[in-house]
Amino acid sequence: PVIYVVTPTHARPHQRAELTRLSQTLLLVPDLHWILVEDSAARTTLVADLLAQSKLPYTHLNTLTPPAMKLKDSDPNWLKPRGVEQRNEALRWLRENRSPTDHGVVYFADDDNTYSVKIFEEMRNTQKVSVWPVGLVGGLRYEGPLVTGGKVVGFHTAWKTHRPFPIDMAGFAVSLALLLNHPKAQFDPNAERGFLESSLLGPLVAVGELEPKADNCTKIWVWHTRTEKPKLKQEDLLEKQGKGSDPKILV
Ligand code: UGA
Ligand code: MN
Questions:
Q1: Nearest CA owner, ligand 1 atom 31
Q2: Residue segments in the chain with a per-residue pLDDT below the cut of 50
Q3: Contacts of 98 (CB under 8 A, 6+ apart)
Q4: Residue 214 sits in which domain range?
Q5: Does the residue 115 lie in any domain?
Q6: Rounded to an integer, what distance in angstroms lies between the CA atom of residue 159 and that of residue 213?
Q7: Residue 200 CA to ligand 1 centre (angstroms)
Q8: What is the CATH number of the domain that holds 59?
Q9: 244: which of 35, 47, 93, 136 is 20 to 30 A away, CA to CA?
């Protein structure tokens, strides 16, 4: 099966750094197709060039998050869901361009997390929905499914424990056939904070059907890392004097 990696991405000073790191991780994974979806009104040359040079099989899409749903610079990062319209755009593309008989697995990989190559081989043989723990998320060292006798019987979580699927976006993969056989399944842009993952998974699978990976969910092979916002105060000061960094140099 091909692994379709769906990545929402948005413009910011460190976007090229994030996408470089992620693309070079993905290069280590065979039979992979990267669906990169920009949160923008048009596809940018920055991303187009990065993809063209990446040597990865890819699809480049874009869709703008409606202004009313968009996080402002001054908002705390959790105020609104992020990457929702972009992941749904990728689902639309898959439904238009692939068929349920194609063997595939879909993984929603944000551009800032840290991925071991091991997690991709774990998810490759997903029948319906496979799951594993994610490091450094939910206010814990890790959050993840609890497994007894090869079945998921609950979750190790401390935040909004009543979530139907208390799993970070990075902690599950879905078979392409399952998504294509449920043409309406998608992420709910109006989902309560923390309920985004559940809004997709709820109609697709029951907890007891989840397929535990990573040694019965005892290994951490993906981390919910977040990148510090670069400080560009000096840049702003120099720009006012007409001495800013060379705009022709792509960062
Ligand atoms: C956590 C989860 O790990 C995300 O998968 C989930 O979408 C998010 O919470 C949520 O509740 O919406 P977090 O690290 O806080 O993620 O979110 P970000 O990494 O800032 O954003 C997730 C993805 O959306 C990234 O790939 C980012 O580039 C993209 N994004 C972010 C956009 O496309 N547009 C934006 O305005 C912001
Ligand atoms: Mn993130």
A1: 82
A2: none
A3: 104, 176, 180
A4: 2-240
A5: yes
A6: 22
A7: 16
A8: 3.90.550.10
A9: 47
